Each structure stands twice: as structure tokens, then as C-alpha cells.
Amino acid sequence: MRRSVTIARLVAAATAFSCAVLLVGCGKPAKTQAHKVTLTLACWEGPEGLSSLMKLLDRYKKMHPNVHIEIQQVPGSQYYQRLKIQFAAGVAPDIMQMAYDQLPSFAERNTLEPLDRLIKRDRFPINEMFPQLLPALKYKGKFYGLPRGWTTFVLYYNKDMFREAGVPFPREGWTWDDFLYACKKVTKDVNGDGRIDQFGCDAPTQADGIAFWIWQNGGRMFTPDMKKCLLDSPEAIEAVQFLADCQYKYNVFPTPEQAQDLGGGSEMFRNGRQAMFIQGRWACLVFRGATYPDGRKIDWDVAPPPMKKQKATVLFANCYVLRRNGPNLEEAWKLMKWLTGYEGQKHQARTGRDMPSFVRVANSPDFLDPANPPEHDRVFLDVAKYARPLEVDANTGTVNELITNEIMQIFTAHKDVRRAMRSLASTINRIQQRGAK
Asked: What averages of pLDDT result for each successive group of 10 residues across the chain (437 residues)?
């Protein structure tokens, strides 16, 4: 009798549980059922970068099937202008790629979400990143970006040309004099037509391209408070004069006309017309598989940049940022953590485009891959000890454009370096003073 009562009770309990489940299924959604959300992500990626990003996003969406991600791809110079228009119209993306030097101008307009609260709440491992990188992610003491990846600038060099000229390979502690000596030895008229068609290196034209030369000479671009431009200091003028002499006096840098005839920029290094090239990690993708005109593979590697009074190089970071008080802020933050966290960093490291922001990923085979050049990948990490970002503020976009234009005039129109730098500093100081009011 007791057995029959027990069975009856079990049947009744099971029936009640089944009804409860049915009620949940037919009524309101269960609490565990994820809310559907559509995120918009703005990026500047070209075909290769977009393909890489889509692979990473596909992995994320498999783990978060409730999330749909719409990509807004705007390659080229129109990217930031479009973002400004979208913010003004109230239709900015949930998450965006942004170079670190653009963070201040957007943060100053209160368009970006400060990340400190979210980083602390979710214990995002910001302190496991390279400490030199962290200032590039902040504005006025607050975090606004987390890195897709970053890079230090190093010296790429053609080992074949150095061997042929009998010049030792570049090394740590290499000086400006060593650099100039090597440039002279490898610069030559290859085909005997009376015109130089193989050069030592090339002239920088952008702000970050001249910054580390100034730093190496003991100078600065700005005072620490950014209120005064120091491009008219003796250290800055001497650094830029050295570079101008490499082009006009020693003829070891190509003139703009010569560079254009030979392909210009990284193309000259990639086709064996230039022995050295100073650039970030992304150049590795361009130079892997580089060949001479006759089809021979170029043997190349990387080394620290030359130095004078001190060691210095520049770093650059490409970040992800969030729309301030966006309608999908929490879901956008989850995606941002994935893209900039360990899995995202491993993925980026394997593409060869970026240095990972986390020290442990950078020291793993995901980045230090012996199967792909350069042989001395670790140089990117070694020079991080003395790498630094540009000093930036809300005026940086305007200021960097002025610097680029004036530096280009020095190398294209042979402008007097001292007068050009003094005029440039005076113009920038007027902008900084207006901004400080």
C-alpha cells in the first residue's frame, strides 16, 4: 500500500513540474534566454584586415548567438569625418576602431565612454599589458580605448645589401654616425646610367616619423603640459637638419622625385631599392615574400633604430572605443573585451600586423613565430623599454597635419630647417594657447 502511495506522489510531482515547464515556455521567456541585440561596429580595415576581423567576429557570434554585428567599413581618410557626422546626428556606432592619437579630440566632445568603471568592475587585466602602452589609452587620466594591437617602430634592413657593402648589420647601440656610414656605403648607381637608384633610407614626413629622432637627440615635441611646442628647440632643429642633410648633402635619401620614380615609401624597400626602412610592425606583412626585380627573395631582418644622446623610439596603438551612453553599451563592452582580450590579441598576433598588448601573449609563439620573418621578432619587444607615444591632446589632429605639411616642405622644397621649424612652432603655439583658454 505504501508503495502505491509513493508512486502516486511521484507521478503527481512529475506532472506538476511538467506543467510548470510548459507554462514558462508558453508564457514569458525564461530568464536564461538571451536578449537579441544588434551591434554596429565601425572600422577602417582594407580587404585583408576586414577578412581577419570577420573571422574573429564569427567566433564571437558562435558563443553569443543572440548578438548580430553590423560592420560599417570606411577605409581611408573619410573615416574620422564620417564618425564626427554620425555623432552629430546621434547615430554613432556602438563600437569603433580609433587610432590612439584621435582619442583626445573625440573624448573632449564627450562622445566616448570612459572605461575605468567597466575595467574595474569586470577586472579586465589592464595591468598585464605593456606599461609603456597604457598612457596611449588615456586622456586626462581616464581610459577611453583598449588596443586592437600596438607597435613599436624599428629599423628594417636588407641583409643582402649590407653583406655586399661589407657593412656590419645594425645592432643595439647603433649611432647616427653608424647609420649615416651604412647609408653612404649602400647608396649607389646600380645600372651605371649616372643616376642613383639604390638608397640607404628615406626621409620621414609625419609627426611620429620625426618625433623619435628629436627624442634621441634629447629634445621634445612639447612641454609636458602641452602648452608650448618645442619644435624650435636646438635639439629638434639639429635632428631635422640631420635628416635633411641625409637627403640634400649626402644624397643617401631619395628626393621626392627619385622616390616617385622608384615606387616610393615601403615599395622601394620591398623591391630592393632601399637598404633601410623605419616603420611599425604592420610593414612585416608587406615585406614577407619581397623580391628583387629578377625574382630573387630579399633577405631582411629588423634591428633597433639608431640613437644619439639617448635611446628612443615611438609607439603607435590602434584601439577600440565605445559610444558614450550608447543604447547597447553593455553588449558593446562585452564585444570590446573579446576583441581586446587574450583571444583577440592572440588572433591579431598571428596575423603578423600587430604586437599583442599583453606581455605573456607577446612572449608566446603566437607572436614570436620562427616560421615567418623577421628572424629577430623580439626586437619589437626589446625596444618597448624606451618606446613612447606622441604627446597628444584635443588639438593633435590639426597640429599633426601642420607638422606633416611643414616637414614635407623641408624635404620637397628644400626649405631652411631653422626658419621652417621656428615658424611651425610659432603657429602651433597660437593653436595651443587658444585651446588652453
From this structure: 36 37 36 77 94 96 97 91 96 98 96 98 98 97 97 98 98 97 97 94 93 98 95 98 98 93 89 96 93 93 97 98 97 98 95 94 94 95 97 94 95 96 97 75
Half-sphere exposure of 73 (CA within 13 A, CB side): 11
Domains and CATH numbers, the chain: 37-150+317-378 (3.40.190.10), 154-314+389-436 (3.40.190.10)
Please report the pLDDT score of residue 30 as a whole number.
37
Chain centroid offset of residue 240 CA: 24
| Residue 394 backbone class (left: φ over 0; alpha: ψ -120 to 50; beta: rest) | alpha
What is the C-alpha to C-alpha distance for residues 265 and 283, in angstroms, rounded to an integer?
11
CA proximity to 355, closest of 289, 280, 305, 278 = 280
| CB under 8 A, 24+ apart: contacts of 84-91 | 86/42, 87/111
Burial 410-429 (b: 16+ CB within 10 A, else e): bbeeebebeebbeebbebbb
Distance CA 354, CA 380 (A): 10
Residues 358, 128 contacting (CB under 8 angstroms): yes
- Cell representation of residue 94: 556602438
Task: Give the chain's length.
Answer: 437
CA atoms of 103 and 321, how far apart (whole Å): 9
For residue 355, CA distances in Å to 78, 208, 316, 337, 371 come to 26, 18, 10, 17, 17
- Residue 76's pLDDT is 82
User: pTM of the full predicted structure?
Assistant: 0.90
